[in-house]
Structure formats: C-alpha cells, structure tokens
C-alpha cells in the first residue's frame, strides 16, 4: 500500500519543525517550563533530532523536530530524518516552511513511511501524518505512490519479478487508470520486427516481451521508454558473482517510467501518454546471442555485438525505433545502463542527455524544486566514431572504456530520428540509507521530469 495522509483529527500530535537559526526564537515563545525542558534535553534543531514535550499525565503534547540551518542543502528531506524516530501515533506537521520547501517536507513525511516488508513478518510502527496546510494533497500523494511503486518493483527479487511479473505490474497500473495495455511476446517479436528484444531474451525460459501502454486522447504526445532487464547475468560475457548481486535492479528504468506514468495519470495531466517497456532476462544457454554476432535492428541498422553484457541498449533500440515511428512530441528513455555514469556522478544524481533545448532549461530548475537532482551530460558528436565498428553500422560495446555513458547515449540517439529525445542513465538504487530514502530501490528523475513537462510540452 502506498502511504497517504491521515484524516485531520483533534487528537493528532503537533510535529513542530525548527531550524537552527530559529531555535532561540522558538524557545522564547514557549512557556518557561517547556523551554527549559527542551534545553535540558539537549534539543538543538540539528537534522534528525527530535524531542517530545510531555503533558502532565505523561502523554505527548508535541514533538519538536530539527531540520538544520536555513542554508543547509546537503540533506534532502531533512524532516524525514527525525520523522523516522517518532513513536507510534498520528502527527500533524506545524511548520513555517512554504512553497517547494513545504512540498518537500510533506513528501518526505510520506516517503519516510515506506517499508519493503513483503518478505518480513515483523510488524512496523503505526505512524501516520496529517497533511500540512498549504499543500496539494492529491499531488503529493501521487508523487509518493509513484515513487513507492518504483521502489517496490526494483526491490522485488528476480525470482518474483521477471518479464511476466513486470507485465502484470504494467497491466495493473493500466487498469487502475483506464489505460490500454498490449504485449508482444516470444517469437511474435520477430514477426512484428523487434529482433533485438527477442535476441537478448531468447536464452531465458521466461519469454521476452514488449509492453505497450497508452493513456489519454488529447494534448501533446509523450512516450516513455524504460529498460526492463529483469535480471542480467551478462549473457555469454558472464558477469562475476560480485557484479551480479544487484542485477535485480536492472529493470530500474522500467520501474521508474511506471512510477512516472502513475504520477502523470493520477493527476490527469493533459497529454497523450505512451509507455514502452522491453522486458527480458539476459540469460545463458545454447540459444544465447554471442560476441561477434551482427544483429539487424527494427530500424534496419546493423549492430556488431562486442559484449553481450551491453544488452540494455539493444532492447531499448527496438523500443525507441517503435516510439519514433509514432512521432510523439517528446521521447524519454530511462535505463540503468552504464557503470560509467556512476563513476561520473555517483549514485545520487540522475545524469541526462537531451536534444531539446527546452528540456535542458527546464529539468535542472524542476529538479531543484522537487528535491530530485539531475545533471546534464553531453551528446558529444565527435565520439560518434567510437560506436562505429568496421563490419556493421554500430558497435554495442566500444573498446577502450572511455566515455562509456556518452557512447551508450549516442548509440540510443541513432534510433530516434527527428523527435525531441531525452535519455536518463540512472542507478535506481540507494547504497546507503538516507532520510526518506532507505537502502534499496529508488526512483531517479521522475519528479523532475513531471515538473518540467509544462514548459517542455506547453501544457
């Protein structure tokens, strides 16, 4: 279940946020006994600190939560650091925050309630939050639900999240919002000219497929394409065990576009949405594709396979070619595509590439407003030569190791001819727990994209 705000109640415990800069003023406005209690308990308003103010009967009168200094930007969702320490109860946020800072606090409270407990029997604390005054409750809940959907899909192990289960998740989402969803599966992929998707997934007993969801009948057309490699062994270029441990998250691009799709549909955004997910498992058996093979894509471009572990760009290539044939107003792909992107910007930033000036302008501003950091990377044309082998049009794994995220993005760009195109090379995982973001699956870039759409598409 996605977290939602509780119904306002007179019994809700006030949760009072305090900045370090405002601590003295806050204490000065309290009765002497209350101010002395907070001082003597050592409450200093730093991030993650909480202190309960008791009633005479020992019940909680209010809880004060520190959110750091006004200029502090190192911690997103600062209020959630303290919220995670609260005892069971229903809390009503009392804060001086406004605008995007208030939205961030409200979203942080909901996301702090997220738990991936599908495989656990231990009960969780019973905590709820009343929506603070001034926030768009439906919007914040849609953002939280989309993010929690993404997290759940990524966190689920591949034994329970293969192509069939990913298809089921997309179908359930479509049913929830009155969208349509069709699937092309197995050898039918060849009959309908999706050869790269079929080739990458054919070695697995779990049939490869292309999931195609559509919603909305008016407004600009937006197509989201998400990499749905439900587990990646590396194929015949087999990954070592240490590198295979997190490969359940290799469908993080698909999980993120499904979360974004929920946000768009739940808010009745006035556009025509299409979601394409090539869902495969990159496995090993006698039918696996081989290093040195040359494959012909849907677009007709030939691809020399120099590493079967660079399979994500292959399945995306066919899906992007299909998306481009429809000539939408914008195509966005999301994929856990390269380790090079993690080396470049680490696990917290979502690097993106775009051919659209409006998107390049809008995304960084939207990211700052939604606590969803992104960083623009270049489609550097001189590197095109690196993806052009001698015997085919394209090389799926250029030798040398330089600019791996850029060359992967350039590869994908070859399959989008005229449509404005944005590509995210995301990590999809929090390696260390942070406020409102537990260790595990994570959406990256979805809120920023959602906030940028009005400027990019003229909504």
Structure at a glance:
With 459 residues, this protein is an alpha/beta fold.
Q: How far is the first residue's CA from the last residue's CA?
A: 31 Å
Number of domains: 2
Radius of gyration, whole Å: 24 Å
What global shape is seen? Answer: elongated
The overall strand count is 19
The largest sheet is: 9 strands, mixed
Query: What is the averaged pLDDT score?
Result: 96
The first-level CATH class name of the largest domain: Alpha Beta
The chain-level structural class is alpha/beta
Helix content: 25-40%
Unreliable stretches, pLDDT < 50, 5 or more residues? none
Task: Name the beta content range.
Answer: 15-25%
Please state the second-level CATH architecture of the largest domain: 3-Layer(aba) Sandwich
**Count of discrete alpha- or pi-helical segments spanning 4 or more residues:** 15
CATH homology group of the largest domain: Zn peptidases
Q: What is CATH's topology name of the largest domain?
A: Aminopeptidase
């Amino acid at each position: 279940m996605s977290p939602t705000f509780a119904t306002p109640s007179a019994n809700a415990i006030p949760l009072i946020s305090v900045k370090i800069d405002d601590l003295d003023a806050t204490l000065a406005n309290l009765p002497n006994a209350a101010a002395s209690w907070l001082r003597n308990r050592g409450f200093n308003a730093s991030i993650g600190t909480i202190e309960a103010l008791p009633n005479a009967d020992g019940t909680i009168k209010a809880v004060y939560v520190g959110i750091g200094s006004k200029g502090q930007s190192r911690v997103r969702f600062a209020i959630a650091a303290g919220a995670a320490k609260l005892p069971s109860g229903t809390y009503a946020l009392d804060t001086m925050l406004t605008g995007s800072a208030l939205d961030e606090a409200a979203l942080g409270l909901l996301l702090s309630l997220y738990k991936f407990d599908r495989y656990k029997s231990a009960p969780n604390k019973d905590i709820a939050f009343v929506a603070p005054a001034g926030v768009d409750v439906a919007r914040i809940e849609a953002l939280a639900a989309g993010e929690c959907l993404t997290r759940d899909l990524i966190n689920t192990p591949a034994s329970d999240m293969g192509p069939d289960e990913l298809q089921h998740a997309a179908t359930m989402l479509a049913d929830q919002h009155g969208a349509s969803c069709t699937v092309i599966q197995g050898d039918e992929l060849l009959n309908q000219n999706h050869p790269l998707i079929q080739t990458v997934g054919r070695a697995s007993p779990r049939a490869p497929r292309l999931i195609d969801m559509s919603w909305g009948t008016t407004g600009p057309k937006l197509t989201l394409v998400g990499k749905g490699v439900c587990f990646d062994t590396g194929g015949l270029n087999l990954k070592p065990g240490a590198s295979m441990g997190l490969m359940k998250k290799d469908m993080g691009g698909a999980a993120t576009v499904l979360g974004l799709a929920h946000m768009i549909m739940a808010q009745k955004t006035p556009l025509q949405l299409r979601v394409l997910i090539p869902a495969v498992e990159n496995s090993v058996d006698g039918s696996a594709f081989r290093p040195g093979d040359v494959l012909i894509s849907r677009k007709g471009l030939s691809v020399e396979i120099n590493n079967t572990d660079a399979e994500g760009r292959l399945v995306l290539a066919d899906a992007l070619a299909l998306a481009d044939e429809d000539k939408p107003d914008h195509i966005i792909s999301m994929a856990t595509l390269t380790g090079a992107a993690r080396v470049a910007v680490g696990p917290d930033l979502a690097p993106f590439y775009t051919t659209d000036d409006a998107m390049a302008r809008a995304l960084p501003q939207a990211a700052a407003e939604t606590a969803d950091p992104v960083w623009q990377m270049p489609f550097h044309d001189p590197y095109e030569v690196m993806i052009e082998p001698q015997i085919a049009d394209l090389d799926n794994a250029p030798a040398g190791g330089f600019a791996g995220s850029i060359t992967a993005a350039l590869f994908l760009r070859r399959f989008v001819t005229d449509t404005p195109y944005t590509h995210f090379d995301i990590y999809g995982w929090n390696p260390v727990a942070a406020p409102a973001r537990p260790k595990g699956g994570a959406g990256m870039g979805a809120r920023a994209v959602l906030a940028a759409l009005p400027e990019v598409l003229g909504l």
